[in-house]
Amino acid sequence: MDLPITGERLTVLSPGPFVLVLGAGAYEIHIEGELVLHRTGASTLHHIAGEAPAEDLAVALDGVIVSAAVDSDGTLRMLLDSGAQLAVEPDRYYEAWHVTAPGIYLVVCMPGGELAIWSEKS
Question: 53 by DSSP, 3-state: which?
């Protein structure tokens, strides 16, 4: 499933202690699971909710979203114009991530990877 955030600039809004909040235009991406970020020519970054983020996480996540999709197993994947690839796999016990635009769009990765989807078009 493609997400409607392609072409938006991804930025870190809040590297909070329990959730990493990213911005993409009118959308927010809340990550409560493990984020894995593969970067061209650099080390792979891992961020787990509840841990202090790496100092270079905000820099590594800054870029335009070239593609954003959810795999059939519930894994969120994004590719940035920098070549960085972001992935958040589902968790067995809790919601690993969600994408929202208040009042018009919400996709939640439920425990186990099933998606709950609400949109103004539904």
Answer: coil
Alpha helices in the chain (DSSP H): 57-60
Q: Would residue 1 count as lying in a domain?
A: no
How many domains, the chain? 1
Is residue 53 assigned to a domain?
yes
pLDDT digits (tens, 9 = 90+) for 52-77: 666 678 888 899 999 999 999 999 99
Q: Which domain holds residue 42?
A: 9-119
Instruction: Count the Cβ atoms, other than its own, within 10 Å of residue 19.
Output: 15
Spatial neighbors of 24 by CB under 8 A, at least 6 apart, are 5, 8, 9, 10, 11, 65, 68
User: DSSP strand E in the chain: where?
Assistant: 9-14, 20-24, 27-31, 34-38, 45-48, 63-70, 76-80, 85-88, 97-101, 105-109, 115-119
Residue 4 maps to a domain: no
